Amino acid sequence: MARYDENERDVAFSLTLRALAYLLHYPEAEWRTHLDDVWAALRGARAIGPARLLQIEALVETIACAHGLDAEAAYVELFDRGRGTALHLFEHVHGDSRERGPAMLDLIGTYEQAGLALRDGELPDHLTVLLEYASTQPREAAVSLLCEVAHILQRIHGALDKRGSAYAAVIAALLDLAGASVAADAQPVEPELDLDEAWQEPAAFDGCGNLGQQGAGQPQPVRVVRRAQATDSHAAQGAAQGVRA
User: Fold this and answer.
1) Where are the alpha helices (DSSP H) in 114-232?
2) pLDDT digits over 161-199, tens only?
3) Contact partners, residue 94, CB within 8 Å, separation at least 6
């Protein structure tokens, strides 16, 4: 049986992180041309157990056999239209709060200190970007980073597993590398939302809840306000003349 020395283990670990990151990228046409090579590298690195590799192989075969546009549409539907499966890690931590911006800047600073720069259109909290950064670090540091985000990976895995997605195997493999047990019931804390529905603007004239109004077609509350007693017309004219003076 072949044995790895520590240096070979580090290289295999780094290669595995990059391969898993690759599998989580948008499956455009150019991406699919390298799929077989990435799968071969992942299998050859032997950093993941045989059972998990079989699950990942099922994902690779699913993508490879699908029509290109179908694979792309399935990816968008899975990762871009639900918060539970979102690959942007801060979506699970900060949501749309103000804390997300400073956290992004801190993460960018971490990458820059390592001599890495984001490509156009990349966001620092996307899981693929974080994995590529981790692959450049010593194995202990990379494992520590995976452990820091393991609770988020558990949520994503739970959401993917709930949908019956083969992509769950990739997230499970990351948890394996972190030394974390894959929780079968790890579900998102908040219910998943369709992002199109979440971002939909409220219908016009649909009531103003903060003003006590009901929605359209519902009974509206009516307030009766007593008018103040009318003032003497001569007194009013005098007061007006005083203001103008």
Assistant:
1) 127-134, 139-148, 150-162, 168-178, 195-198
2) 999 999 999 999 999 999 998 876 544 444 444 444 443
3) 100, 103
Residue 221 has pLDDT above 70, yes or no: no
Residue 183's pLDDT is what? 77
Count of CB atoms situated within 10 Å of the CB of 146: 21
The Cα–Cα gap between 10 and 47 comes to: 10
Cβ-proximal residues to 176 (8 Å cutoff; 6+ apart), any chain? 48, 49, 52, 182
Residue 112 · residue 219 · CB < 8 Å:
no
Q: Which of 132-141, 154-163, 177-186, 201-210 comes out lowest in average pLDDT?
A: 201-210
Q: List, in order, residues 6 or more apart from 214 with CB less than 8 Å away.
A: 207, 220, 221
- Upper half-sphere CA count for residue 97 (Cβ side, 13 Å): 8
CA pair distance 167, 206, nearest whole angstrom: 40
Q: From CA 172, how far away is CA 188, in angstroms rounded?
A: 15
